[in-house]
Write a structure and sequence with these properties.
The protein has about 170 residues and is an all-alpha fold. Helix content is about 60%, strand content about 0%. Bound molecules: iron/sulfur cluster (SF4).
């Protein structure tokens, strides 16, 4: 029997990860074979790389590292993982990510590791967030360049989520 998708975000993160793992184990090849999915996965992976490149080139990584190392800052607080649904977690599995089985930082997001985020497909909240410090530190052109790259990443993950959901929910009433 096909594994049913846990709909929505209102389940414990452990349940959503388990659900994504079961769907992946049962249906990864069928999901990859859906029209356009391999192409979207490829383009999305490229877009994520471009976002990180833009964050490096335009000063976001330097500023965030300084904030984390010298000011004890972290944007990746406990509870952000609650925004994830099973589909976004499933996309990480399709991209080959290893998901943590436990929270590594008691105050941090479930997906936060010692050196930062452990997953590729982040929530749109994580993708789009620019704090006041970044707005103060970066030139407007740098901010726009980073936002453009992030917007493309967010568009692609949205398309991927929709494509997978149509198939995963095909038998739902
Ligand atoms: S960037 Fe990663 S670790 Fe940080 S809040 Fe988002 S998913 Fe969690």
């Amino acid at each position: 029997m096909a594994v049913k998708l846990l709909i929505g975000t209102g389940h414990p993160i452990e349940a959503k990860i388990q659900n994504a793992r079961e769907i992946f184990a049962q249906s990864a090849s069928e999901l990859r074979a859906l029209p356009g999915v391999e192409r979207l996965l490829y383009e999305y992976r490229q877009a994520v790389q471009q976002s990180w490149k833009a964050m490096n080139v335009h000063g976001v990584v330097t500023e965030c590292t300084d904030c984390a190392v010298n000011d004890g800052g972290s944007c990746c607080g406990r509870g952000i993982e609650d925004k994830f649904d099973s589909v976004l977690i499933l996309i990480n599995l399709l991209l080959g990510c290893d998901l943590p089985d436990e929270r590594l930082d008691p105050e941090g997001c479930w997906f936060l590791g010692e050196k930062g985020c452990l997953i590729t497909a982040r929530h749109v909240i994580c993708i789009n967030y620019m704090c006041k410090r970044l707005y103060r530190a970066l030139d407007t052109d740098d901010i726009h360049a980073v936002q453009e790259a992030m917007g493309y990443e967010a568009d692609l993950v949205f398309m991927l989520e929709q494509r997978l959901k149509v198939w995963l929910l095909r038998d739902s009433p």
